[in-house]
Specification:
The complex is a heterodimer of chains A (318) and B (271). Chain A contains 11 helices and 14 strands. Chain A is α/β, with parallel strands linked by helices. In chain A, the strands form 3 sheets. A 6-stranded mixed beta sheet of chain A has the order 6-7-8-3-9-10, sandwiched between helices. Chain A has a 4-stranded antiparallel beta sheet with strand order 2-1-4-5. Chain A has a 4-stranded antiparallel beta sheet with strand order 12-13-11-14. In chain A, a hairpin with a 2-residue loop joins β1 and β2. The longest helix of chain A is centred in the last third of the chain and has 18 residues. Chain A is elongated, with a radius of gyration of 24 Å. The two termini of chain A are 43 Å apart. In chain B, α1 packs across α8, α2 packs antiparallel against α5 and α9 packs parallel to α12. Chain B has 13 helices and no strands. With 271 residues, chain B is mainly α. Chain B has one domain. The chains are: A alpha/beta (318), B mainly alpha (271).
Chain lengths: 318, 271
């Protein structure tokens, strides 16, 4: 069985003269949580629509589960769950009726459906309000129901479009936790579209940064940080500053200080985290007294804005 | 064809429509106004305001009555003829407004209403083909429209027979032309109306916008009313059968056009 779940090659979609998705090429692997990051209107939702055969492409190709989306969209959709940005829950129906609809359309066995619905209602803590009209639900409850209906048929691949959009912090945290619980079950693959970078940082194994339909960068946060900053930064706090001679013996190092304020903070650029123990040994070797070793973490926020800045600079340079 | 999925979507559309107060008002208000209050008033006129009954007002209409029916009507007293013509013929076009409006309202709610509530996109991601989606939306509107039409026919029959019994001294409704009207023309009119609403709803942004834009669908009914009152034709059994065939041809043509409008690519770009 192939490990590649989603594969696009120069996938393109236009609306009139506007190119919404521009020669998008990406791969998403089985079991990973992939985040498509970008501002509003970047082409994230259009990409999800293209990958589900809800929109037809104007160029390139897309394969999901190894099947051609253009030719086999219905078969693909059967194995997929989609949480749209505005949750698709029907106000005039109860939670149970909403789940029955999805279960029946996805072809769950009639004999097993009531038990599966009860299980999902319990899992998403909706059982006490299961027979109330959704119109009476809070926004957080509606979102929980929307996520429940996304997962009820046990999809192998789940698209989540802005899953915490418009939720208060508490409801957003709960949604992220629910997604985390569901994400790594049975090798399930999750594709999240978001502009919420903190949420993406918590959930995603790999990310792609998209803008104006174009993929600007793709990889794990660590890989992207490595590409952007050519190495891993480590900051070391010393008890006393080192002499110039001691510093020179350490090779390439940035010291944070000046003549009046001798440096006790040293910054190193290393090829990888595995080089940290060697550095600590070298420092001890020159007599440094180490207070703290602080490998610098580039947040997804740093990465996202660095990618966008790099893209803007390259655009200005052309 | 995935009939289980189709049934699920139909049930969802009906439950959703049933939770909409505007739709309930239309379901009850339109038939009651058109098929109870107005006809009962007309049928009671000979008993309540006999001096207002003037058959000369109906002369134009009677010009195109087939000879056999004309002879039969000639055997009635003036007030009885009024009741017969009012209950059995004048309200025929009004009756068609019921299947037409009910199917249009549900279809508008099922497509434009879903767009407005932002639930249509979720439906488009489900494993249901465009054809199955179209069939679901059509049947969700058509089945209740036909059921309400049938109930309306029974209620109308009871109402006019009761109201007119004092004048007629017997049950006088329905005349034979009503059978093709109820079972041939009404389904065709309903289908045509909902096909037009589907076409409009595919573009409309909201339920109300779709409803307003679909308003012109009553024009054929007005044409029938004017045609009959002006003596251009009379809705006898044969004429009703002919109209039924004509409406079926129109309805099927419109349904074919509507099928092309229910495509994911077309709908998703508007949500």
């Amino acid at each position: 069985m192939s490990n590649v779940i989603i594969q696009t090659d120069a996938l393109t979609r236009r609306f009139g003269t506007r190119v919404a998705v521009d020669a998008l090429t990406l791969e998403v692997h089985r079991g990973e949580v992939f985040g498509l990051l970008g501002p509003n209107g970047a082409g994230k939702s259009t990409t999800v629509r293209l990958l589900n055969g809800v929109l037809a492409s104007h160029g390139g190709s897309a394969r999901v589960f190894g099947q051609d989306v253009a030719a086999q969209a219905a078969q693909i959709r059967r194995r997929v769950g989609v949480l749209t940005e505005t949750p698709t829950v029907y106000d005039g129906l109860t939670a149970r009726q909403n789940l029955e609809l999805v279960g029946e359309v996805y072809g769950l066995e009639p004999a097993q459906l009531p038990a599966r619905i009860a299980e999902v209602l319990a899992e998403f803590e909706l059982q006490t309000r299961a027979d109330d009209k959704v119109a009476t639900y809070s926004k957080g409850m509606r979102q929980r129901l929307a996520i429940a209906r996304t997962f009820i048929h046990g999809p192998e691949l789940v698209y989540l479009d802005e899953p915490t959009s418009g939720l208060d912090p508490e409801a957003a945290r709960m949604v992220v936790e629910l997604v985390q619980q569901q994400a790594h079950r049975e090798g399930r693959t999750i594709f999240i579209c978001t502009h919420n970078l903190d949420e993406a940082e918590r959930l995603c194994d790999r990310v792609g940064v998209i803008d104006q339909g174009r993929m600007l960068a793709i990889g794990s946060p660590a890989e992207l940080a490595h590409q952007l900053w050519q190495g891993y930064r480590v900051v070391i706090k010393l008890a006393e500053p080192l002499s110039d001679q001691q510093l020179q013996s350490l090779g390439e190092v940035t010291s944070r200080g000046d003549a009046n304020n001798p440096p006790t903070l040293l910054e190193f650029s290393l090829p990888g985290l595995q080089a940290v123990p060697d550095l600590v040994s070298a420092l001890c070797g020159v007599g440094a007294r180490i207070v703290r070793v602080d490998p610098q973490h580039h947040s997804l926020r740093d990465i996202y804005f660095a990618v966008r800045q790099r893209h803007q600079r390259s655009g200005e340079g052309q | 064809m995935n009939w289980r999925a189709i049934r699920a979507v139909i049930r969802k559309d009906l439950l959703q429509a049933a939770s909409n107060r505007i739709i309930w008002v239309s379901f009850i208000g339109v038939p009651v106004m058109l098929l109870v209050i107005m006809p009962v008033g007309m049928v009671l006129m000979p008993q309540l305001v006999p001096e207002q009954i003037d058959l000369r007002e109906l002369e134009t209409m009677l010009r195109s009555v087939p000879p056999g029916l004309k002879a039969r009507l000639g055997a009635f007293l003036a007030d009885q003829m009024w009741v017969m013509l009012a209950a059995n013929y004048m309200f025929m076009p009004f009756f068609l407004l019921v299947p037409m409006m009910i199917s249009s309202i549900i279809a508008a709610d099922g497509i434009a209403g879903e767009k407005e509530r932002k639930t249509l996109e979720g439906l488009l991601y489900m494993p249901i083909s465009d054809a199955e989606l179209f069939i679901s939306k059509v049947l969700a509107a058509w089945i209740p429209a036909l059921a309400i039409t049938l109930v309306s026919f029974i209620v109308y029959g009871l109402a006019v027979n009761l109201a007119g019994y004092g004048t007629m001294q017997r049950l006088f409704f329905p005349e034979p032309a009503w059978w093709p009207l109820v079972f041939l023309v009404a389904p065709a009119v309903s289908l045509a109306s909902l096909a037009v609403t589907v076409i409009i709803s595919a573009k409309a942004k909201s339920f109300m916008a779709a409803q307003q834009a679909s308003g012109f669908i009553v024009l054929p009914v007005i044409a029938l009313m004017v045609g009959q009152v002006s003596g251009l034709f009379f809705l006898s059994t044969w004429v009703v059968l002919l109209i039924g065939v004509l409406f079926w041809a129109i309805a099927l043509m419109l349904a074919k056009i509507a099928t092309n409008k229910i495509s994911r690519d077309e709908l998703v770009t508007q949500v």
